[in-house]
Design goal:
It is built from 6 helices and 6 strands, in the order E-E-E-E-H-H-H-H-H-E-E-H. It is α+β, with helices and mostly antiparallel strands and 182 residues long. It folds into 3 domains: 43 residues, no CATH class; 48 residues, no CATH class; 68 residues, no CATH class. The strands form 3 sheets. It has a two-stranded antiparallel sheet. Helix 3 crosses helix 4. The longest helix has 29 residues. The relative contact order is 0.07.
Length: 182
């Protein structure tokens, strides 16, 4: 048994958090008092903490993005395996359906001049990927359609905004503009 210095009650040792520098290895306040204190502190300092975090994130954005890129590259296979498993779940399937719905809605939201004949003409004009120069007939460089200005960036589903590109190049470009692509 130990007495909490905050509430003055005798409580079992399991009711106290560990404390590395305390003589007995336990904090002087019981878990209930420590939790109540933490909640009150968070409530009274919430705005100050949010402001600090906003400023910190602005100042360290580039460092954080570099860290995320590096971490992703080191753990790419784990991440992809996790995503594959997630997309098999009910929630993952719902997310995928919603994303496809939003994309189709963007494509059909405005006027379009995309026709089969127009797409064939574009294919005749571009027999190689405009981003990497590789021909589309390679097994690992399948031809896909890229919206030069992405639909998510306000681009339209129009012939002058479409390009036949290789699948890998299209995936690498993602939702960026061609000049933003690394």
């Amino acid at each position: 048994m130990k007495t909490c210095t905050k509430c003055g009650q005798d409580k079992p040792l399991s009711e106290f958090y560990g404390h590395p520098t305390a003589r007995d290895g336990l904090g002087s306040w019981c878990r209930a008092c420590r939790n109540a204190h933490q909640r009150e502190y968070y409530r009274t300092h919430k705005g100050k903490k949010a402001t600090y975090m906003r400023e910190y994130n602005k100042e360290h954005r580039a460092e954080h993005l570099a860290y995320l890129r590096e971490y992703y590259e080191e753990h790419k296979e784990e991440h992809l395996a996790c995503m594959r498993e997630y997309l098999k779940t009910k929630k993952g399937k719902q997310v995928r359906v919603r994303a496809n719905y939003v994309r189709r809605a963007r494509m059909t939201a405005g006027e379009t001049n995309v026709t089969d004949q127009g797409l064939l003409t574009l294919l005749e004009e571009h027999d190689v990927c405009p981003y990497c120069g590789r021909p589309f007939d390679e097994a690992d460089h399948k031809q896909t359609w890229d919206h030069v200005v992405p639909l998510s960036g306000g681009g339209q589903h129009m012939l002058d905004n479409l390009l036949p590109v290789g699948l890998r190049c299209n995936l690498a470009k993602g939702a960026s503009l061609p000049n933003e692509r690394q």
